[in-house]
Sequence to fold (211 residues):
Amino acid sequence: MEEILKYFPEIDDVQQERFRALEELYKDWNLKINVVSRKDIDEIYERHVLHSLGIAKCVQFLPESKILDVGTGGGFPGIPLAILFPDTAFDLVDSIGKKIKVVNEVVSGLGLENVQTYNCRVEELSKEDEYDFIVSRAVARMDAFVRWTKGKIAKKSRHPLKNGILYLKGGDLSEELQAYQNATIFPLSDIFEEAFFSTKAVVYLPQKFKK
Fold:
């Protein structure tokens, strides 16, 4: 929890309480349904919560904006971002039912009212739904992810950063991103000093990308 306050000292008491409650909720549910690796569960604030919040260092989501978290797994990055931005709507999608079950229980346990969950593939969401940003943590290569999420990004941008994809990725991205000329890489090592983030980044791909 100290790591969260170190980088986000402005969070209010309600947000602090929710971030503190995360650890026990995940440890309890992870014993029943494994959604966080056992080696990572004791490092949940650094490797999952703070990692997710790296996106918030790239863009501050505005009230009433809509964010889609694709392949949310145990609720990352969606749940930490939903705590940080309580006036922003988050849709969390995963095709694996047991993972969405855990997400629902954590959302309920935290009393989050700005999160909706969907147990389906992203391609099965309503074609009417559009989002300011689509977020995720390395569920696929960028070309596959772009294909899955086609048509889901709203055309009108309200943020300083144009609508698009914010993708948490690691390692050498040069080959994977060579087809996307206007992708921007935000190294998390420039933001967080912990060694875990030395090879981690947020990849931003605006809606109208060039190949």
Summary: The two ends are 41 Å apart (CA to CA).
